Every structure is written in structure tokens, then in C-alpha cells.
Amino acid sequence: MEDVNQTVVSEFIFQGLCTSKELQIFLLLPFSTLYLMTVIGNLVVVVLIIVDHHLHSPMYFLLANLSFVDFCLSSVNTPKLTTDLLKDNKTISFGGCMSQILGIHFFGGCEMVLLVTMAYDRYVAICRPLHYTSIMDRQKCIWLVLISWIIGFVHAMSQLLLILELPFCGPRVIDSFFCDIPLVMKLACMNTDTLGIVIKADSGVLATTCFILLLISYTYILLTVQHHSKDGSSKALSTCTSHIIVVVLFFGPIIFIYLWPVSITWVDKFLAVFYTVITPLLNPAIYTLRNKDIKNAILKLINHM
């Protein structure tokens, strides 16, 4: 049975977002536009932070990495989702399916840890401002980003290795627009209840740990902000509000999809679209619209063109 998952099932079939052909054609332009805006928005943020020396600080270094991760996360599913809207037969190879699972959990895990790192950066900046430059030096920032990539990779590989061992011998229809672990596990030719608990525990530990650390960080920051001067506290509060909005938008759908005990197909599809298509676009928009330095850098770039 070692090669049963490779030989018996060579591809999976997606049911897609909906069954209506007319609605799928209608959705083609919005999804194509959203993906194009996500790519441009995130890459513009990365380029701005690299080019403008005024943005060469730990906060923007971490933001550039977050934008790059969002670009990668969106690129795992959205191009396939968009092209499948034109197809009647939405198939994906076994290898392609496993690659999607790896990509989602790699970049998703990386983003969770990056958001915690950004919260830590804001905590040091607001709660220990006199020691900020010594604590958040260049070397430490690089290490924090490397750790986020390593944790994301380890998390993704641990999930993928558990799935690769499953025997798949049909059915091969996935009621979604992409491969995800809970959906693929339903197609295995064995009882996966125990494995499901292990996989949920793996994802749950990472997501819950990051979420708790974020709650503690921002609670401490907001309490500290109350004792600052009015001008300083309003600027700090504005920055933290941007971060908190991003955290809620990212973790909200994940908690419902992976940790909520009741699964409702249309809700899962909507939330999956939200965190793989919408959230990567909202992140650069939120940080750009609420950040004076980024807006100034954009204006400067436009004036030079």
C-alpha cells in the first residue's frame, strides 16, 4: 500500500466556488482584479521600503516581509481559482494538491509568527522607547524574520508528511476551490479521526499561541499608551490599530475554519476566499492608508516619475 496514494489517485476534482456557470463567469473579473491589486499593492510596499531610506527601520523591514508573505500566500490559490472559473472540469494533480497544502500552511504559519514579531516591535517601541535601537538592531530583526520562516516551514512540513502517508483510492471530488487538509482527509480510504485530532492540535497550538501572544502584547501596549502624552499616544494608538485590524482579519477566518467544531461548506468557502484572496489585499491597503511615512514615500515616488 506504499504507493497507493500515488498510483490509484493521480488527480483530484474541485467542485469550485459554486455550480452556476453564469456566476462563475461573472466572478472572473472581480477575482482577476483582486489578485492583480494584491500583487501590485504588496510588491509596491516591498519596493518602497527597499528604495526609500526613510523607511529603513525595524517596523518597515518587518512590514516588507509581511507584504512579501501576503503576495506568496495569495499566489498559492488565487491564480488556479481564477483560471478554474472558465473550466467545466476543474482538476488538480496529486502533486499540485500537496503543493497547495504546503504553500498555505508555510506562508500562513510564517504570517502568524511575523504578526507576533511586529507586535513585539511595537511593544519595544512604545513601552521601552529609550532602549528601542539597542533591542531591535538589524541582526535581531533578521533573526526574527528567519525564525518566522523556519517555524512556518516546520509547521507546513509536519502537516504535509501526515497527509502524504494517507491512502487515497477514491472518491476524488473536493467540495471547494483548493486543496486543504480537512477536505483532503475526507477522501482517504481509512479512518482519519485520530489523525484529524493530531493535525488540528498542530495547527491549533501554533494559531492559539500566536493569538494569545498578540492579545497580551497589544493589551500591554494599550495600557502603556494611556500614560503617554496625548500626541504620542494618538500616534502609537493609530499604528497599533492598523496592526490589530490585520490580526483580526487574518486570525478570524482561520479560527473558524480549523478550530470551529461545526463545518458549514458555504461558510468555509467564504472564509477561505477571505483569508487567501481578500486579506492579502487588505493588509497593504490598511498599512498604506493609515501610515503617513508610506503615503509620503508613494508621493515622492510619483513625483520622481
UniProtKB/TrEMBL annotation:
Keywords: Cell membrane, Disulfide bond, G-protein coupled receptor, Membrane, Olfaction, Receptor, Sensory transduction, Transducer, Transmembrane, Transmembrane helix. Its main location: membrane. One of its GO terms (molecular function) is olfactory receptor activity. SUPFAM superfamilies: Family A G protein-coupled receptor-like (SSF81321). The chain crosses the membrane at residues 25-51, 98-120, 141-164, 204-223, 244-264, 270-289. GO terms for cellular component: plasma membrane. It is found in: Cell membrane. Signal peptide: none annotated. It holds the Pfam family 7tm_4. It is a multi-pass membrane protein. PROSITE patterns: G_PROTEIN_RECEP_F1_1, G_PROTEIN_RECEP_F1_2. The keyword Transmembrane applies. Residues 41-287 form the G-protein coupled receptors family 1 profile domain. Belongs to the G-protein coupled receptor 1 family. This is Olfactory receptor. It comes from Cricetulus griseus.
